[in-house]
Amino acid sequence: MSLPRGPRLGLDVGSVRVGLASSDPDGLLATPVDTIAPGDRARVVREVCERGAAVVYVGLPRHLSGSEGASAAVARDYAVSLAGEIDPVEVRMVDERMSTVSATAALRASGRPGRRQRSVVDQAAAVVILQGALDAERATGSRVGERVAAHPDAETKTER
To answer: Which pTM does this prediction carry?
Structure first.
């Protein structure tokens, strides 16, 4: 069974910044979009609507041991709130261990100095998260990650 066409969005959620990435409609390649403030979920909702996103993948920052800490709780809370705002578009949590490390290494290898990295490292991490999900979709033929249910009290705010 093949997945329906449609862009996918990837989010690297942090307490200070949220990196945003998007894919092409066939889900082949992830590209950076922007870095936004965590409180600006309206921007993510707008991107979902304008791009006609099929799914939003939110990175789940686990420790190397697989356990979850405070950062994972922040990402989960963000994903639940977002799911309530973009229903019926799926929100899925995907393991993002090492995404920021990979993104930082790639930026350093491209010659971007450390001070200038901070402005784009979250976008690059979102690209790593989304590209991993895209690759896994192609390998499995299905959506990947843990589906996030909207909080039962959340209102659906997005019309598509």
So the answer is: 0.84
